[in-house]
Amino acid sequence: MILKCRSCDSLKIKNVVSLGFVPLANALLTEDQLDQPEEKFPLDLVFCEDCKLVQIVETVPAEKLFKSYVYLSSMSQTMLESSRELVEGIIKELGLGPEKGTVLEIGSNDGYLLKNYVKAGVKCIGVEPAQNIATVARDNGVHTITGFFNLDRAKELVKSGYQVDVLHANNVLAHVEDLNSVIAGIAVMLKPDGVAIVETHYVGDLIEKTQFDCIYHEHLCYYSATSISNLFAKHGLTMVKAERIAIHGGSLRAYFKRTDYLDKWDESPIIVEEKAKGMQKLAYYDWIGPEIMRLKMGLQWFVQYAKNTGKKLAAYGATAKSTTLLNFCGVGKESIEFIADSTPFKQGKYAPGTHIPIVEPSEIYNRNTDILLLTAWNFAEEIEKKESRFLEKGGKMFSPFSFHREGEWSL
Ligand code: TYD
Fold this sequence. Notes:
The protein has helices spanning about 60-65, 75-95, 115-120, 130-140, 150-160, 180-190, 205-210, 225-235, 270-275, 280-285, 290-310, 320-330, 365, 380-385, 390; strands at about 15-25, 40-50, 55, 100-105, 125-130, 145, 165-170, 190-200, 220, 235-245, 250-260, 315, 340, 360, 370-375, 395-400. The protein starts with 12 loop residues before the first strand and ends in a 13-residue tail after the last strand. Helix 5 (about 150-160) runs parallel beside helix 6 (about 180-190). The mean pLDDT is about 95. Helices cover about 30% and strands about 20% of the residues. It is α/β, with parallel strands linked by helices.
């Protein structure tokens, strides 16, 4: 449990909302674990009044959190396309190729992003802590080191002659406990004109769209352009550009360069917008508490209504998000028959806390499901396309946010 801000060590961290005790989001259970006690941890969100970083208080030890990491980035077409587009743009802009350019990715997962550099012959390397996933990346032809990235690792890499033109960190900074060591490592890794490109879920979307299910123990920090640029600035890195992108329900893509090699830069319009919205103040974040309660009541009411009208309800996406959503809202296997998910690692297991079985998506047809709760709502378009047969048969899909306000859904 932290008493000081994870980024700036300030003691001025203020409570935003408490989601109670929740099991670990990806701690899927096997059948023989179902009758064993399950560990739950407090999930409390706070805001730092000094550097403006939103974060959770509890730090679950990494050995517990990442015992068996089940997330494969390549499972999503949306992720694959977004990273391919990004890499193709960077290769073109910087003129990278077999003779020019070196790239590093932190949290490189199964090689979903770096494989685009490999294809173009650009020298690249991934750092990935999950052994099982790093193996998948190597099988995909992506040179991958198994382990965590931090300042020591960066110094070792630089010593072996590896400094980079481009460094990617996609959806990784939210997970990092030793935040300042990682950012210091990024600064060390960059060549004088190198660029670090960071993607992370955007806290503005989390608050304004009540995406509270994105809050779970793996996500220690929830960034705004202001808080992330404050963090990097401490390590001699300046945010030279930032953009909001649609992925994961709304993300921030920020570009950082070494301050010591920059002449001048303009303040990002996103930071200007954040000031105008009041995102530097606790009141902006406080608003989410009552909104979450409204969503919880709406979902409970819907589930009961579906049951009373004899509809068969299942969920789609055994996401980490679904653990927070279902446990906090008190919706379990008495209402949701199963969770469909295309990830082979997840099938045959059970959801944390609720013990809902996870099965192949084809089960929505075999078991005549009427309604799907889209717990992978961030991939709604992709799932609607993939399961168009379900919709054509009259099946209905709802994201959890459909229940936020009265009258936003019908059966
Ligand atoms: P995601 O929402 O990215 O992650 P998180 O766990 O961080 O909340 O996970 C998406 C999940 O949805 C993943 O388990 C794969 C699954 N999925 C499908 O089963 N079918 C699909 O078509 C897509 C896009 C995802």
